[in-house]
Inverse folding.
């Protein structure tokens, strides 16, 4: 996404072998500090014929202090990008920059430690991400131990107790083990483990998808609280657009490894230009069961794109809105956006239409059931009818009208096929013999 990358004033990145991060990252033309930048990133798994490109040419910037949400269906590459940011997944191509310094690929050990110190991750599964054999005190303190972020034992205890209270738990919980807590409490522990490192950037990998609905709001409020108090920047990974709309500053939509649309949260919901974005918005459930029943889903069909003549690319259509498509598609997206008429991705079917549709479906189901009941019990269409008719075509010619008369259609077709094949084979065989005899007589 060349246009997106060219927005920065500091076009030249810092030294590739920088041992430490600068205090501030590069800024774009609007003066916003770019804390994380992906440039043409490819992430692959496997080799040779089994090579799978999980992420393809991904490019976007994340600004300091914002919540950038990455949204898409399962398997689209969201978590793969998040794990690449924390250097778990290597990049096959492209680079990831943090404050203008490359953190992908081979980097100095001192810089690697700063990545661990400054970039933390909150995992999707609150149970699997915690060591079941360690106490909560040790789980939260592990980062403090590794980076010596406390003056003495009393200072460490004070920091841990303060953090456990900030996430809504009690100091007496520190002596317990993860299996003694609920899912929501475990996620609070995982959040405390990340935040005690005082990171500047946090990758939140679907932190609420495994939680009850009543607990989700509490975790989201905690994330916003830490962001406000500590100026933390989030890469928030999710598949539910209804949640990210209210916590995100900007949203990126990913489909099968391709970033297909990036825009401000309200801009994206008012003008969802890419068809895949519209399909995600239409899938948002409506609280009213009557409206939800009559909702018409917008189904995304990738075949609507014709990329046989030219390669698609990410382009800005104005309003800090980027869409992935061919030149013709980009021009159409610009025309729609310049019209300034918000797009409606959710359509509610009229009650009468629903009744007609249900009536048709009911009639079709009744017809198929009647057809099934009318079929004779022993009309199996056994292959032995075909074999017997092939060996004895006379049997087949006698049996097939009988089967047809009594509606044994499967048996009739098998006898018909076998008898005709037998007659043709017998005719060819006799013809060959006659020709051979004729040649011998001559």
């Amino acid at each position: 996404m060349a246009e997106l990358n060219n927005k920065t004033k500091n076009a030249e990145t810092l030294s590739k072998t920088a041992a430490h991060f600068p205090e501030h990252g590069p800024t774009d033309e609007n003066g916003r500090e770019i804390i994380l930048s992906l440039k043409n990133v490819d992430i692959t798994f496997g080799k040779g014929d089994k090579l799978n490109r999980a992420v393809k040419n991904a490019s976007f910037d994340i600004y300091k202090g914002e919540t950038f949400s990455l949204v898409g269906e399962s398997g689209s590459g969201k978590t793969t990008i998040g794990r690449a940011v924390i250097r778990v997944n290597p990049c096959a191509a492209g680079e990831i920059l943090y404050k203008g310094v490359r953190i992908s690929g081979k980097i100095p050990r001192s810089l690697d430690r700063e990545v661990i110190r400054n970039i933390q991750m909150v995992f999707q599964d609150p149970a699997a991400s915690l060591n079941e054999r360690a106490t909560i005190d040790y789980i939260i303190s592990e980062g403090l131990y590794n980076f010596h972020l406390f003056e003495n034992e009393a200072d460490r205890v004070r920091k841990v107790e303060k953090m456990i209270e900030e996430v809504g738990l009690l100091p007496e919980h520190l002596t317990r083990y993860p299996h003694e807590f609920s899912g929501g409490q475990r996620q609070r522990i995982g959040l405390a483990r990340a935040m005690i490192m005082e990171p500047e950037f946090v990758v939140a990998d679907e932190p609420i998808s495994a939680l009850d609905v009543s607990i989700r709001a509490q975790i989201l409020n905690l994330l916003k609280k830490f962001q406000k108090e500590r100026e933390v920047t989030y890469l928030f990974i999710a598949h539910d657009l209804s949640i990210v709309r209210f916590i995100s500053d900007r949203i990126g939509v990913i489909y099968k490894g391709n970033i297909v649309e990036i825009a401000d949260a309200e801009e994206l919901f008012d003008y969802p230009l890419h068809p895949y974005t519209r399909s995600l918005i239409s899938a948002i459930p409506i609280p009213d069961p009557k409206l939800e029943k009559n909702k018409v889903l917008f189904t995304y069909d990738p075949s609507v794109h014709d990329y046989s003549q030219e390669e698609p690319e990410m382009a800005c259509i104005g309003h800090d809105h980027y869409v992935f498509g061919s030149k013709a598609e980009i021009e159409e997206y610009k025309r729609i956006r310049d019209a300034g008429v918000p797009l409606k991705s959710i359509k509610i079917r009229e009650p009468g239409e629903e009744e007609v549709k249900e009536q048709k479906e009911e009639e079709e189901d009744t017809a198929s059931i009647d057809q099934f009941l009318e079929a004779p019990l022993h009309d199996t269409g056994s292959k032995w009818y075909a074999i017997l008719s092939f060996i004895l075509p006379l049997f087949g010619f006698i049996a097939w009208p009988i089967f047809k008369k009594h509606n044994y259609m499967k048996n009739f077709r098998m006898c018909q096929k076998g008898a005709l094949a037998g007659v043709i084979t017998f005719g060819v065989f006799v013809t060959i013999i006659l020709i051979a005899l004729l040649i011998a007589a001559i």
